[in-house]
Specification:
about 350 residues, Quinone Oxidoreductase, Chain A, domain 1, Rossmann fold, seven-stranded mixed β-sheet, 11 helices, binds NADP nicotinamide-adenine-dinucleotide phosphate, binds zinc ion
Length: about 350
Amino acid sequence: MRVNAYAAPAAGEPLAPTVIERREVGPNDVLIDIEFAGICHSDIHTVNGDWGPQPFPVVPGHEIVGIVAEVGTDVERHQVGDRVGVGCMVNSCGECVNCRNGDEQYCVKGMVPTYAGTDRDGSTTQGGYSTRVVVDADYVLRIPASLDPAAATPLLCAGITTYAPLRKWGAGPGTKVAIVGLGGLGHVAVKIAHALGAEVTVLSQSLKKQEDGLRLGADHYYATSDPDTFTELANRFDLILNTVSARIDVDAYLGLLAVDGTLVNVGAPPEPLSLDVFSLIGRRRSFAGSMIGGIALTQEMLDFCAEHDFAADVEVIPVDYVNEAYERVLASDVRYRFVIDTATLAG
Ligand code: NAP
Ligand code: ZN
């Protein structure tokens, strides 16, 4: 099955139209007519070669929403006409301890990423900047009917990547949570942390987006360019979620944690981060990382967002705007997620 797509031909090259092959629908597969594909900063890291060599050409896109067009003979959980989503992984072994615990993203044999990964049949996966995709039904999520489909799209990565650590480290009533970076992940994190009942503070480079941050659900908003921020907020937070795509001064942020507080890094800059252990031991603090989230938790997150009546704030774009959108994301000029209308790929 040949479908239209947008691909990066080589590291750092602009994305351009192409045609790719999708596999035939197998017994446990779902064919999805893609409606929307979100632009995650991870797409940009990948095609720019920040994270090492990639199997070019790469069709990015791991925030996918669309309509089921066909299901395999063994598929029971999805039906033709359903609105569904696909996130960052399209397969895993299903048998290892992590898969059995619902942490498929940490599959011992390696989960299959939605693009630039090796599928179980040996082919290279290609992502959502395309018109159709075939995915194993177990990795396909239900999109609640009450959510706007374009706005729901970023939840498939930005939503689960922030929901998972906020839940794991107990964000809720009585906890003080800081979100570092108000971009794609950060703005969804603010909404989720607020909906969970936490007291939410945004730590952004400047105060330019303060009004938005407060509207999204933050209780406080500070500029990290102002050194007073780090003295005023010292020892304040139970949990800090760092969503920044570049290096940060880890010690400065650890200094904002209370006793037993945790700084969870979800931002994935190419360069190593370093820290002074005294930033940890003086107050029994932790520095942690977290990668997306399991399939069951992703469904829980989608249902949670629907129940609390929110999704992402998106700017819907035609596919030929994608290279400009990348530039704007790199300039922190995104409010707050670009989503490609894949109807603009048809024809
Ligand atoms: P994004 O929309 O570009 O947001 C990142 C935000 O970080 C920016 O909006 C900006 O916020 C802040 N920032 C950017 N450069 C900065 C710098 N030099 N210094 C300080 N702050 C800076 O990106 P995203 O899509 O949310 O992704 C964020 C990171 O998470 C990326 O590295 C991505 O690869 C990673 N990620 C990880 C996972 C995971 O599973 N762990 C999943 C998805 C994405 P302000 O303007 O408010 O300062
Ligand atoms: Zn992502």
